[in-house]
Design brief:
The protein is of the alpha/beta class and 193 residues long. It has a single domain, classed as 3-Layer(aba) Sandwich (Rossmann fold), CATH 3.40.50.1240. A 6-stranded mixed sheet has the order 3-2-4-1-5-6, sandwiched between helices. The longest helix is centred in the middle third of the chain and has 17 residues. The radius of gyration is 16 Å and the shape is globular.
C-alpha cells in the first residue's frame, strides 16, 4: 500500500529574511511566516490527512500546528527532522562566515556533514512513511533537510544545490514497496491566493 507524504518547509523567520543561518537555532516564525502557515493550512482543507509530523524547532512545529489545527489533530515532533546543524556558523550570514572562518573547514566548526544529515533525513522519512501504509501524512521540516532527501530520492537530479525549496513550499512523495517517488516539488500555489 502506498503512503503519500506532503513534505513542507516551515514559514518564514526573521533570519530567513536577512539570510542568517538558522540550523538548530530555534527561531520563531515572523509575521509573514505566520500568514504563510495559515495559507498552507488552508490549502489542505478538504483533504484527508491521517497524521502530522514536524521538527521540534518552533518554526516547523508552529507551521505544522496551523495545518493540524484544521483537522483537530496534534503534531508529533522529531529531532531527526531538524535542519542541518551548522555549529559555529549558526546566527551568521555567509559574508560573516567568510570573514571569520576563512581558513577553517566545516568539521572544525562543528558542522554536521551533508551525508550525516541526508542519512538522518532518509531514515526519518522512511520510518514515518512505513508507519502509515495507505495513508496521507504531512511532515513539516527545513529547506536543507528537504533538499537532501529530494537529492537522495532523485539520485542527484534534484535537491541540494539544484532545487530551491521556498518557505511553505510543498513537495509530495509517494512511498510504496519500500521505494520513494517524487510527485511534485516546491508547490507554492497556496501563497498566490
Amino acid at each position: 500500500m502506498e503512503t503519500i507524504m506532503y513534505l513542507i518547509r516551515h514559514g518564514e523567520t526573521e533570519w530567513n529574511q536577512i539570510r542568517r543561518i538558522q540550523g538548530h537555532s530555534d527561531i520563531a516564525l515572523n509575521e509573514l511566516g505566520v500568514r504563510q502557515a495559515e495559507q498552507v493550512a488552508d490549502r489542505f482543507q478538504g483533504e484527508t490527512i491521517h497524521a502530522f509530523y514536524s521538527s521540534d524547532l518552533s518554526r516547523a512545529r508552529d507551521t505544522a500546528a496551523k495545518i493540524a489545527g484544521n483537522f483537530q489533530s496534534s503534531v508529533s515532533t522529531r529531532t531527526t527532522l531538524r535542519e542541518r546543524c551548522y555549529g559555529e556558523w549558526e546566527g551568521l550570514t555567509y559574508e560573516e562566515i567568510r570573514e571569520r572562518f576563512e581558513n577553517q573547514d566545516e568539521a572544525s566548526c562543528g558542522i554536521e556533514t551533508f551525508e550525516d544529515m541526508q542519512r538522518r533525513a532518509v531514515a526519518a522519512m522512511t520510518e514515518i512513511a512505513g508507519s502509515h501504509p495507505g495513508e496521507a501524512i504531512v511532515v513539516v521540516s527545513h529547506g536543507g533537510l528537504i533538499n537532501s532527501f529530494l537529492h537522495y530520492v532523485t539520485v542527484g537530479e534534484q535537491g541540494t544545490g539544484i532545487t530551491r525549496i521556498d518557505n511553505t513550499g510543498i513537495t509530495i512523495f509517494r512511498y510504496v514497496d519500500r521505494r520513494w517517488e517524487v510527485l511534485s516539488v516546491n508547490d507554492t500555489d497556496h501563497l498566490k491566493a
